[in-house]
Amino acid sequence: MPIVTAAGRTDNRVMPLECTMARKKEETANRIAENRKARHEYFIDERYEAGVALQGWEVKALRAGRLQLQEAYVLLKSGEAFLFGAHISPLPTVSTHVVPDPTRSRKLLLHRRQIDALIGAVERRGFTLMPLLAYWKDGKAKLEIGLARGKKQHDKRADERERDWHREKARVMKSRR
Protein backbone atom coordinates (compact mmCIF):
# COMPACT_ATOMS: atom_id res chain seq x y z
CA MET A 1 0.00 0.00 0.00
CA PRO A 2 1.63 3.28 -1.05
CA ILE A 3 2.18 6.01 1.50
CA VAL A 4 1.64 9.64 0.45
CA THR A 5 4.34 11.92 1.83
CA ALA A 6 3.96 15.60 2.73
CA ALA A 7 5.40 16.59 -0.68
CA GLY A 8 2.61 14.66 -2.41
CA ARG A 9 4.85 11.84 -3.65
CA THR A 10 3.96 8.22 -3.09
CA ASP A 11 6.33 6.10 -1.10
CA ASN A 12 6.10 2.32 -1.45
CA ARG A 13 8.51 1.50 1.35
CA VAL A 14 7.40 -0.85 4.07
CA MET A 15 8.46 -0.23 7.66
CA PRO A 16 11.19 -2.79 8.41
CA LEU A 17 10.83 -5.18 11.29
CA GLU A 18 13.73 -3.54 13.11
CA CYS A 19 11.76 -0.29 13.39
CA THR A 20 8.82 -2.03 15.04
CA MET A 21 11.20 -3.86 17.38
CA ALA A 22 12.83 -0.56 18.30
CA ARG A 23 9.41 0.91 19.06
CA LYS A 24 8.61 -2.03 21.37
CA LYS A 25 11.91 -1.56 23.21
CA GLU A 26 11.14 2.15 23.55
CA GLU A 27 7.70 1.38 24.99
CA THR A 28 9.15 -0.98 27.57
CA ALA A 29 11.89 1.54 28.39
CA ASN A 30 9.19 4.07 29.31
CA ARG A 31 7.42 1.55 31.53
CA ILE A 32 7.89 2.07 35.27
CA ALA A 33 5.71 -0.71 36.73
CA GLU A 34 2.90 -2.99 35.65
CA ASN A 35 0.12 -4.60 37.66
CA ARG A 36 -0.06 -8.08 36.13
CA LYS A 37 -2.22 -9.34 38.95
CA ALA A 38 -5.02 -6.99 37.88
CA ARG A 39 -5.23 -8.62 34.43
CA HIS A 40 -5.49 -12.03 36.09
CA GLU A 41 -8.09 -11.04 38.69
CA TYR A 42 -10.29 -8.65 36.65
CA PHE A 43 -11.87 -8.10 33.26
CA ILE A 44 -10.68 -4.67 32.10
CA ASP A 45 -13.49 -2.89 30.22
CA GLU A 46 -12.10 0.62 29.72
CA ARG A 47 -8.70 2.22 30.21
CA TYR A 48 -7.93 5.81 31.21
CA GLU A 49 -4.66 7.73 31.34
CA ALA A 50 -4.16 9.83 34.45
CA GLY A 51 -1.39 12.06 35.66
CA VAL A 52 -0.08 11.57 39.19
CA ALA A 53 0.67 14.35 41.68
CA LEU A 54 4.08 13.43 43.08
CA GLN A 55 6.68 14.90 45.39
CA GLY A 56 10.27 15.37 44.26
CA TRP A 57 11.71 12.33 46.02
CA GLU A 58 8.95 10.17 44.50
CA VAL A 59 9.86 11.23 40.97
CA LYS A 60 13.50 10.26 41.60
CA ALA A 61 12.40 6.91 43.02
CA LEU A 62 10.17 6.29 39.98
CA ARG A 63 13.11 6.99 37.68
CA ALA A 64 14.93 4.23 39.57
CA GLY A 65 11.90 1.93 39.05
CA ARG A 66 10.94 1.67 42.71
CA LEU A 67 7.15 1.43 42.34
CA GLN A 68 4.88 -1.47 43.28
CA LEU A 69 1.25 -1.52 42.10
CA GLN A 70 0.19 -5.03 43.21
CA GLU A 71 -1.81 -3.94 46.26
CA ALA A 72 -2.85 -0.55 44.87
CA TYR A 73 -6.38 0.61 44.06
CA VAL A 74 -8.11 3.83 43.02
CA LEU A 75 -10.84 5.52 45.06
CA LEU A 76 -13.11 8.40 44.11
CA LYS A 77 -13.70 10.87 46.94
CA SER A 78 -15.59 14.15 46.68
CA GLY A 79 -15.20 14.37 42.91
CA GLU A 80 -11.47 13.55 42.89
CA ALA A 81 -9.52 10.35 42.19
CA PHE A 82 -6.82 9.08 44.53
CA LEU A 83 -4.32 6.25 44.30
CA PHE A 84 -4.09 4.20 47.50
CA GLY A 85 -1.74 1.39 48.42
CA ALA A 86 0.94 2.05 45.80
CA HIS A 87 4.34 1.66 47.36
CA ILE A 88 7.18 3.93 46.23
CA SER A 89 10.38 2.96 48.02
CA PRO A 90 12.47 6.04 48.81
CA LEU A 91 16.04 6.18 47.61
CA PRO A 92 18.71 6.15 50.31
CA THR A 93 19.77 9.62 49.17
CA VAL A 94 16.50 11.34 50.15
CA SER A 95 17.15 14.69 51.76
CA THR A 96 17.29 14.89 55.54
CA HIS A 97 14.51 17.49 55.80
CA VAL A 98 12.00 15.31 53.90
CA VAL A 99 10.18 12.54 55.74
CA PRO A 100 9.19 10.05 53.02
CA ASP A 101 5.90 8.17 53.31
CA PRO A 102 6.09 5.28 50.81
CA THR A 103 2.37 4.41 50.87
CA ARG A 104 0.76 7.83 51.05
CA SER A 105 -2.33 8.50 48.95
CA ARG A 106 -1.59 10.33 45.69
CA LYS A 107 -4.00 12.45 43.74
CA LEU A 108 -4.73 11.40 40.15
CA LEU A 109 -5.15 14.11 37.56
CA LEU A 110 -8.14 13.44 35.30
CA HIS A 111 -10.55 15.60 33.33
CA ARG A 112 -13.87 16.38 35.03
CA ARG A 113 -15.87 14.44 32.40
CA GLN A 114 -13.68 11.38 32.92
CA ILE A 115 -14.18 11.55 36.68
CA ASP A 116 -17.94 11.91 36.25
CA ALA A 117 -18.03 8.88 33.94
CA LEU A 118 -15.95 6.86 36.40
CA ILE A 119 -18.18 7.84 39.34
CA GLY A 120 -21.23 6.69 37.38
CA ALA A 121 -19.64 3.37 36.47
CA VAL A 122 -18.36 2.64 39.96
CA GLU A 123 -21.50 3.64 41.85
CA ARG A 124 -24.24 2.48 39.49
CA ARG A 125 -22.73 -0.49 37.67
CA GLY A 126 -20.48 -1.89 40.39
CA PHE A 127 -17.12 -1.58 38.67
CA THR A 128 -13.73 -1.25 40.38
CA LEU A 129 -10.89 1.08 39.45
CA MET A 130 -7.50 -0.64 39.24
CA PRO A 131 -4.09 0.83 38.40
CA LEU A 132 -2.70 -1.19 35.49
CA LEU A 133 0.49 0.46 34.31
CA ALA A 134 2.79 3.31 35.30
CA TYR A 135 4.93 4.84 32.56
CA TRP A 136 6.73 7.99 31.41
CA LYS A 137 5.18 10.17 28.72
CA ASP A 138 6.93 13.38 27.66
CA GLY A 139 8.88 13.40 30.92
CA LYS A 140 5.77 13.10 33.09
CA ALA A 141 4.68 10.09 35.14
CA LYS A 142 1.38 8.69 33.91
CA LEU A 143 -0.81 5.96 35.32
CA GLU A 144 -3.12 3.82 33.24
CA ILE A 145 -6.20 2.92 35.27
CA GLY A 146 -8.79 0.41 34.21
CA LEU A 147 -12.49 0.12 34.83
CA ALA A 148 -12.62 -3.50 35.98
CA ARG A 149 -15.09 -6.27 36.80
CA GLY A 150 -14.01 -9.16 39.01
CA LYS A 151 -13.43 -12.59 37.48
CA LYS A 152 -14.86 -15.77 38.88
CA GLN A 153 -12.69 -18.87 39.31
CA HIS A 154 -14.03 -20.51 36.14
CA ASP A 155 -13.18 -17.36 34.14
CA LYS A 156 -9.59 -17.54 35.36
CA ARG A 157 -9.35 -21.22 34.38
CA ALA A 158 -10.75 -20.47 30.91
CA ASP A 159 -8.19 -17.70 30.42
CA GLU A 160 -5.40 -20.05 31.44
CA ARG A 161 -6.61 -22.74 29.00
CA GLU A 162 -6.78 -20.16 26.20
CA ARG A 163 -3.28 -18.87 26.98
CA ASP A 164 -1.92 -22.45 26.97
CA TRP A 165 -3.67 -23.12 23.64
CA HIS A 166 -2.13 -20.02 22.02
CA ARG A 167 1.30 -21.01 23.34
CA GLU A 168 0.94 -24.56 21.97
CA LYS A 169 -0.37 -23.28 18.63
CA ALA A 170 2.61 -20.93 18.28
CA ARG A 171 4.99 -23.79 19.14
CA VAL A 172 3.43 -26.03 16.44
CA MET A 173 3.46 -23.28 13.83
CA LYS A 174 7.11 -22.50 14.61
CA SER A 175 8.13 -26.14 14.20
CA ARG A 176 6.41 -26.36 10.77
CA ARG A 177 8.51 -23.56 9.31
Structural features, described:
With 177 residues, the chain is of the alpha+beta class. It has a domain at 29-151: Small protein B (Small Protein B, Chain: A), CATH 2.40.280.10. It has 5 helices and 11 strands; from the N terminus they run E-E-H-E-H-E-H-E-E-E-E-E-H-E-E-H. The strands form 3 sheets. It has a 7-stranded antiparallel β-sheet. A two-stranded antiparallel sheet has the order 1-2. The protein has a two-stranded antiparallel ribbon with strand order 5-8. The radius of gyration is 21 Å and the shape is globular. The mean pLDDT is 82.
Per-chain topology:
Elements: E1 3-4, E2 10-11, H1 17-30, E3 31-34, H2 36-41, E4 42-52, H3 56-63, E5 67-68, E6 73-77, E7 80-84, E8 87-88, E9 106-109, H4 112-125, E10 128-137, E11 140-150, H5 153-176
Antiparallel strand pairs: 1-2, 3-10, 4-9, 4-11, 5-8, 6-7, 7-9, 10-11
Average pLDDT score = 82
CATH superfamily of the domain at 29-151: Small protein B
Class of secondary structure makeup: alpha+beta
Judging by the overall fold, what is the CATH architecture of the domain at 29-151? Answer: Beta Barrel
What key phrases describe this protein's structure?
single chain, 177 residues, alpha+beta, Small Protein B, Chain: A, seven-stranded antiparallel sheet, two-stranded antiparallel sheet, 37% helix
